[in-house]
TrEMBL record:
This is Serine acetyltransferase. GO terms for biological process: cysteine biosynthetic process from serine. The lineage of its organism: Bacteria, Bacillati, Chloroflexota, Chloroflexia, Herpetosiphonales. It is an enzyme of class 2 (transferase). It comes from Herpetosiphon geysericola. Pathway: Amino-acid biosynthesis; L-cysteine biosynthesis; L-cysteine from L-serine: step 1/2.
Amino acid sequence: MRHWWRSVREDIQTILHNDPAARSIFEVLLYPGFQAVQIHRLTHWLWNQKLPFIPRLLSQLTRFLTGIEIHPGATIGRRLFIDHGMGIVVGETAVIGDDVVMYQGVTLGGTGKEIGKRHPTIGNHVVIGVGAKVLGAITIGEGARIGGGAVVVKPVPAYSTAIGVPARVVATRDPQTGQTNRVEMLPDPEGAMLRSLHESVQSLNQRVIELESAMGSQAYHIAALSAQRTPGDDPFDCLEDLQSYEMHYADGI
């Protein structure tokens, strides 16, 4: 009983610490994440007493009331913080460490291929973003961060950040200094498009300069031919010179 009361107090303090919207203990008692965790502690104890039906019934009622489905067989550590919580699913053989934060829509599920241990193990101080899916009997290392919407099917090292579908590690973090080191640059389609446009504009500017230079030379040559003519010259001679220059100009372009 004393252990249970200590867990309740820790869970309340965790929510008050992590959620600025929680202003009092009475508000925390209304949080679906808090309710789901407390009921799970009871159903997990019953599950370990080899009473499968009652804990399953309670977990389904909890799912109906809170939108959070935690299998009674799942192992949850201390101070789990479920923010909002709607749509969270935690499988039977999942293991969640201490001080883990999970947001709505998270799934700790299986791939349908394993037997026995088939759900992930989440280390201490892990943050799992909105809608992330962690699938299979993999391990998410201590202090790791899973980006929103990621689909994780491979282990994630400690103090790493994984994003994408399928998830890949893009950064690591020094637990002592908190300094983040990029492992992979994030894709930047807008930046790539702007660079391409910039290169195209530069190419067009260079082409305009070349055309203006060529047209200036042509105008100068025409003026020179006109100045060289005398009243007695055959006008067709000047025309032939002009046609010869235009052919040379076209070859140059």
